[in-house]
From TrEMBL, chain A:
UniProt-listed InterPro entries: Gate_dom (IPR011642)
Residue ranges of the TM segments: 6-23, 44-71, 91-115, 136-158, 170-188
Organism: Desulfofarcimen acetoxidans (strain ATCC 49208 / DSM 771 / KCTC 5769 / VKM B-1644 / 5575)
Listed name of the protein: Nucleoside recognition domain protein
Nucleoside transporter/FeoB GTPase Gate domain location: 42-154
TrEMBL record, chain B:
Native species: Desulfofarcimen acetoxidans (strain ATCC 49208 / DSM 771 / KCTC 5769 / VKM B-1644 / 5575) (Desulfotomaculum acetoxidans)
Protein name: Nucleoside recognition domain protein
Keyword Ligase: no
Chain segments annotated as transmembrane: 12-29, 50-69, 150-172
InterPro entries: Gate_dom (IPR011642), SpmB (IPR052549)
Length: 197, 176
């Protein structure tokens, strides 16, 4: 799937640029994209290193485990393949909480820790996403944001009479997306596992 | 309301940074050494994401710069007009899963041109707040542990994006 999407974007882009007579933008765009990729990863070093340190402290203090224990009924339903005391659970919960609070730059490192913990459980095919990873990403990309801070800031900037009036509609839309994401994840998990993919 | 929210996000991280080391210390953890031990993998994790991010961002960048994006939205907008979806929001809807920065740029532009309190302004605000950059998150998270086969993760991610979009339009039509 990702192979097809990737190839389609590259080929369509090149064909359209050629048809429009501005093929030279392709070269520029390709290098700019590569540069953004490297820059983003390098920028991540500082913040990931920092949050990994804090997370290790939280784990050593037993805080991550306590958080995971609190939401156990929910995580048991969502992630039946993860042992309830596994550190992956704590990291997943930390990542989703940061997402809910709209703390974007803290959510990413915690998500990466969660992936590393999930990968430790993924012995069968280490280059292929496990069921739990797919569920985690479905939750993550559709996660409820209680406080969409950035967009509220922009509304405020352009003199909205009521910048926060979109909080309610945002929660509704995101809850719909999340519910369906979980449902689709369940169905696809069943189909893929039946076919042994 | 806005002051409460901005105060909350101003305090959230400092409070976490105060409590975690303090509780760890009180529980007898060697705080400095443990922090360093955890931080050690940070560099490696970030470096590992480079090839994956480069691959994805090159494709997105070519797709956008070539005009293929506009072609796609131009192709879709007559269909959407028929079902009462304003075509102004289409570039945002298509860009949102691909690039967070670009989508925010489009949202800002729409809010600037139509006003934050117009129907389109409120709709695009809801869309921006309720969705995430699916492709970026998938590439980054899977890339960091070397997962190459995404299995069904893309499908469920895109279904979520599409549902969120449809739900945003419906709820905004009802509310505003």
């Amino acid at each position: 799937m990702v192979n097809i999407i990737w190839l389609a974007m590259v080929i369509l882009g090149i064909l359209v640029a050629g048809y429009n007579g501005n093929i030279e933008v392709v070269t520029k765009a390709a290098f700019e994209g590569a540069q953004t990729g490297v820059k983003t990863s390098l920028n991540l070093i500082a913040i990931i290193t920092f949050w990994l340190g804090i997370m290790k402290l939280a784990e050593a203090a037993g805080l991550v485990q306590a958080l995971a224990y609190l939401v156990r009924p929910l995580t048991r339903f969502l992630f039946p393949s993860i042992p309830p005391d596994h550190p992956a659970m704590g990291a997943i919960v930390m990542n989703l909480s940061a997402n809910i609070l709209g703390l974007g730059n803290a959510a990413t490192p915690m998500g990466l820790i969660a992936m590393q913990e999930l990968q430790k459980l993924n012995q069968r095919r280490p280059d292929s996403a496990s069921d739990a990873m797919c569920t985690f990403l479905a939750l993550n990309t559709s996660c409820i944001t209680l406080i969409p801070t950035t967009i509220i800031g922009i509304r405020l900037l352009y003199n909205s009479a009521n910048p926060t009036e979109i909080v309610g509609t945002t929660i509704f839309a995101t809850a719909c997306g999340m519910t369906l994401a979980i449902a689709v994840d369940r169905v696809l998990r069943f189909i893929y596992n039946q076919q042994g993919r | 309301m806005y002051t409460i929210i901005s105060e909350l996000s101003r305090w959230a991280i400092p409070v976490v940074l105060l409590l975690i080391p303090l509780i760890a210390f009180l529980r007898g953890v060697k705080v400095f050494e443990t922090f360093v031990e955890g931080a050690e993998q940070g560099f490696h994790t970030a470096i590992k994401t480079i090839p994956f991010l480069v691959a994805m961002l090159v494709a997105i960048s070519i797709f956008r710069a070539s005009g293929a994006m506009e072609l796609l939205t131009g192709f879709l907008s007559p269909v959407l007009d028929k079902v009462g979806i304003p075509s102004e929001i289409l570039p945002h809807a298509v860009m949102r899963p691909l690039s967070g920065g670009a989508a925010l740029g489009i949202a800002t532009d729409i809010i600037k041109n139509h006003g934050p309190d117009s129907f389109i302004g409120r709709l695009v605000s809801t869309m921006q707040g309720s969705s995430d950059t699916t492709f970026f998150v998938l590439t980054l998270y899977f890339g960091s542990v070397g997962i190459k086969k995404y299995r069904y993760a893309i499908i469920s991610g895109l279904v979520a994006d599409f549902t969120t979009l449809a739900a945003s339009i419906i709820i905004c039509k009802i509310m505003f």
